[in-house]
Amino acid sequence: MWMFNENQSFKMFHSKTTLEELSPEDQEELRNLEKELEQLKTQFEKADTVKSRLLLDKLDVEEHKKQAQDEMMKLLQEEKEFSKELENQKKRFEQEALAIEETNHQLRHQVNKQKERLKFKRSESESLQQKFKIITAIPEKAVKFIGVEKEIPDHKLEEDCLHMQGLFSIIQNPALALSGGHALITFEEEQVAERILKLASCPVTIDNAKMNVKPSRVALDPTAKFEVQLNVSLKKIEVSNIPPVLPEERIRDKLELSFSKPSLGGGEVENVDYNKDSGTAVITFLDTGVAERVAMRKTYPLDMGLKVFEVFVSLCTEHQITKFQTFCGTSRRTVLLSGIRDILDEEDLQDNLEIHFQKPNNYGGEVENIKYTAQGQTIVAYFNEETVASE
What's the whole-model pTM score? Predict the structure, then answer.
């Protein structure tokens, strides 16, 4: 490609010769050069335009680059701040987790304490329930009527004879569990027991063997006194174990039909009160004597149509506990002896202890009763009211 200045080339040709002086070939060549010069001028202008456009594009790219760098720096700063905030949050969460764990630990500790307390309270409650619970079989006792408490007018005789009334006084004797190696000794006089209780220990010698027996006061478990008022109806019976195999109304009808049969000891039924939830019923007969006769059977055949069931029967009773009173006490004439060794058999050792505590020079006195329990045994000793001081 030719690179020269247009004006200089023209002047060079012009200085040498004019156009008419040139030969046809030179003229043709000059025209070609002029065309080429025009083409070069056009290319130069285009190149200059491209250069200008490239410079503008470069400036625009650099502006975008700067913006991108600024944006990148901003993002890096934000990332740094976010990482710092994330680290701070992580530390806060760890601290909160530690605080929650500590709280959970304290709560678990409190829960365990409350469980132990509840266990203790339940044990204490069960112990108190056992102390105050009265479950015993009262033996049969002959009753002797010694007189009429009140006269019943003739017009009320039948009404008052429809039921029996009873009043029972129940007194629970104080008790003490006597474990092995202990003895209970009851003196005839309270002052003797008081003298023995003032001693820290009682040196006892039996067959050249010495032992220090420790006396202590007998603290008894709580006991109770109460009265039971009992009313027994002579016209009503209670029926239990009734199977729910029929609708409620039909069961009432079957009860009335079954207990109305004289052949089974029944009689005319005045009322049937049936409870389907408990499977029980109260049957009221029209005449007295029928209920007692039926109750003596203990069981009764209940005809349900397709099958006969055995139900339990008893007189209908109502009871009420009144004048309930609890009390604690200590024995006034009885002393608990501990620290006794089995150096003899149980009976001989008991006799030697009684001999020792009967002697006045041992601060003793007349012994009313003594009971020793050998090692490995446990018995229950009962006290009467005369030997107990209420608290």
Answer: 0.43
Residues 38, 128: Cα–Cα separation, whole Å: 128
What are all long-range contacts of 194-201, with beta carbons under 8 Å and residues at least 24 apart? 195/363, 195/365, 196/335, 196/357, 196/363, 196/364, 197/335, 199/363, 201/339
Sequence-distant (≥ 6) Cβ neighbours of residue 387 within 8 angstroms: 186, 331, 332, 333, 334
The contacts of residue 19 (CB under 8 Å, 6+ apart) are 27, 30
Instruction: Report residue 190 as tokens.
Output: 């309270």
Q: Which contiguous run of DSSP H or E holds residue 149?
A: none
69: left (phi over 0), alpha (psi -120 to 50) or beta: alpha
- Counted residue by residue, the chain has a size of 391
Give the Cβ contact number of residue 361 at 10 Å: 5
Q: Is 300 helix (H, G, I), strand (E, B) or coil?
A: strand
Q: Which residues contact 70 (CB under 8 A, 6 or more apart)?
A: none
- Is the Cβ–Cβ distance between 245 and 304 less than 8 Å? yes
Closest CA to 354 of 163, 206, 198, 141: 206
How many DSSP H helices and E strands does the chain contain? 7, 14
Task: Convert the pLDDT of each residue in 70-92 to its tens digit.
Answer: 888 989 898 888 888 888 988 88
Specify whether the CB–CB gap between 221 and 391 falls below 8 A.
no
- Adjacent-strand bridge partners of 300: 311
Nearest CA to 183 among 383, 349, 370?
370
pLDDT tens digits for 236-258?
999 999 999 999 999 999 999 99
